[in-house]
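This part of the workshop introduces the protein records we will be handling. An example says more than a description, so a record of this kind follows:
>
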Amino acid sequence: MGKVVLVTGVARPIGGRFVRRVLREPEVDRVIAVDAVPPEHDLGAAEFVRADIRQPMIAKVLAQTSVDTVVHLDVSATTTMGSGGRTQVKETNVIGTMQLLGACQKAPTVRRLVVKSTTSVYGAAPRDPAVFTETMPAKSLPSGGFAKDAVEVEGYVRGFARRRPDVAVAVLRFANILGAHADTPLAEFFALPVLPTVLGYDPRLQFVHEDDVNEVLVLAALDARRGTLNSGTFNIAGDGVLLLSQTARRLGKPTVPVLLPAVTWIGRTLKAAGVTDFSREQIRLLTHGRVVDTRQMRETLGFAPAYTTAETFADFARSRGPGLLPPDRMARAVDRLAAAALAPDAADATDADHA
């Protein structure tokens, strides 16, 4: 008998891609694809079960299908078609996770649990360390939005791991996911014709490609390339960082700097523009940035992303088409402005040397 894998959140693009990918693994016998709404994309040979993970029915699904591996992808910042607004998303993230973990706890066949989380759990604050490791606590805990949901979800997962020590549990903290099919708040932000930024700040950002997300999920769920089941929490991100100003230039889009006290206005404006979860935590990210260490991903989990942060963003930018301004002209204009801004300082330094 091969593995029986249950995947939640399959109506989302990330869930659909993972289902199609894991079906290609020879050791997988069945894939049970679960969501509250039918997916618009193809799920291949997977067995779709329409079930809301916030309801007790999910326990029956696990019991009837003898699932041994659960991949929980229904933890997200965005809504799916027909699934309601932010309140329902939060309920699915938090209450849905509680129900799913309760069902897993009662299912004796479950031996592996993989949970999609986010590096947003570290928050974003002015006194943050240069690089976060998995053991570092947040300097300022997220106060709302998807980031706060993820903190609560991880707390419930830790409780489950204590109650079921026989289950190998892996929590994957993904950096901002980008790609041709990305449906994240940051992808929606980058889709705006003009990018609002916080005046005086140029945060460092990390990205992970949607293809790498697929591959690391398969590795974490099956450990097919290592032969062991690794448990723990892992930061998942492409190598390197990009500044927000660099992303704007590569998209060929102008920025509109706004004073820091106006961050609330930025959030309201972005929500009005259709960015679904541009919470205060997202604004803090675009103010202070966030970078995570990925040594555990490489050394313990045994995963090396195919895309760097820069390559991930380049692929995302190509999928979105040209911006308002050609990127090369945008870069030259920014360089000229930077040189002009530095010119007075250079002149002052020369005058001081002559004096």
Observations:
- The chain has a mean pLDDT of 86.
- Residues 327-354 form the longest helix (28 residues).
